[in-house]
Amino acid sequence: MKTPTAHLANLDMNLLVMLRELLRERNVTRAAERVGITQPAASAALSRLRRHFADELLVRAKGGYTLSPLATQLAEQVEVVCSAAERLFAAGTDFDPDASQREFTLLLADYTIAVLGPTLARAFQERAPKVRLHLRLVRESLATDVADTIHLIDGMVAPPVSRFRLPGLRSAELFRDRWVCVVARGNTTLTGDRPTLEDLATMPWVVPFHDNEGYPPAAPMSRQLTLFGIRPHVAVRVESYQAVPYLVSGTDRVALIQERLAGQVADRLGLRVLECPGEPEPIVEKLWWHSNYQEDPAHIWLREMVVAAARGLSSDHKPDL
């Protein structure tokens, strides 16, 4: 019986790269171009992968290919494995951002991308034009697996919570924000600048990452409502922070969103931004990484870039209240 090590030694690691590109592109010709091989060689690799998994993986459909159910499951896994392999073989005592072509993977929420992403992208373009960024969107539930996840990525941006108190986990504060209420400008239920808890308790809500099954919910916005003593009438649940203001615009709904995000979209979407009642918890966003990367030159550079990008954020982000 072969040991796991023997199985690994017999694997053709080139097939991992080919699998990633085939699942990304859903097209044999484009996958071949990305890897730098001929189309027949890519077709042969797909045949080997199909035999290995005993699955079609790419299923012919009108106008192209779609992913089989197994391929959909493999797509996320192969991204993680390839990223981990790239980090492993890129490790060393030196790191030259001008010449490096490595890829860094950061896990963060779409709200954080809206706030920090443009500044970070510009900094990478200026300081390390060949280095690639892979920004993976985090779901609230994914953060519960942080002990395993943090080994497979270069860093994660998230607020501090109790489940992050793990051996080997390091962090640095990036920026702070606060919760505000948003309603459509035509909303007649809330007319003042600061709604009361009684007002909010009777209104339909848009909430991100809200679990109808558990109470009290763990998602940050839902946690604030719990602290306010409000069990909201949830009109819309959505797996995104950035989508929330769009689902409030032009309706009688209300939502809590981050002030920095409100400042970006309120005028464009016709929203009024109101002070929250009570004393909501401050939003503290941190960069998290595993201590295994503490002294690695590439990861030191990455952390410096992310922290510097956060320090470069404008403090004048407040919308008109």
TrEMBL record:
Stretches that traverse the bilayer: none
Transcription regulation listed as a keyword: yes
Domain of life of the source: Bacteria
Family label: Belongs to the LysR transcriptional regulatory family.
PROSITE patterns registered for this protein in UniProt: HTH_LYSR
GO molecular function (one): DNA binding
Top-level taxonomy: Bacteria, Bacillati, Actinomycetota, Actinomycetes, Pseudonocardiales
Keyword annotations from UniProtKB, A to Z: DNA-binding, Transcription, Transcription regulation
InterPro entries, alphabetized: LysR-type_TF (IPR050389), LysR_HTH_N (IPR000847), LysR_subst-bd (IPR005119), WH-like_DNA-bd_sf (IPR036388), WH_DNA-bd_sf (IPR036390), YidZ_PBP2 (IPR037402)
This protein's name: DNA-binding transcriptional regulator, LysR family
Organism: Prauserella marina
Pfam family, one: HTH_1
